[in-house]
Design brief:
This protein is mainly alpha-helical and 42 residues long. The protein has one domain. It contains one helix and no strands.
């Protein structure tokens, strides 16, 4: 029973990490786009 709970928790943790990675990539894209626009004006 403990092994099942542990596996479920690990799967949930992995899903959370994957979501964080996706969000981080999205943030990086937005920041890069902003920086590109700023460089165009200078």
């Amino acid at each position: 029973m403990v092994a099942k709970d542990d596996t479920a928790k690990k799967e949930k943790d992995v899903q959370a990490l994957e979501e964080i990675c996706e969000n981080t990539r999205g943030i990086r894209r937005v920041v890069n786009r902003i920086l590109d626009h700023l460089h165009e004006y200078h």
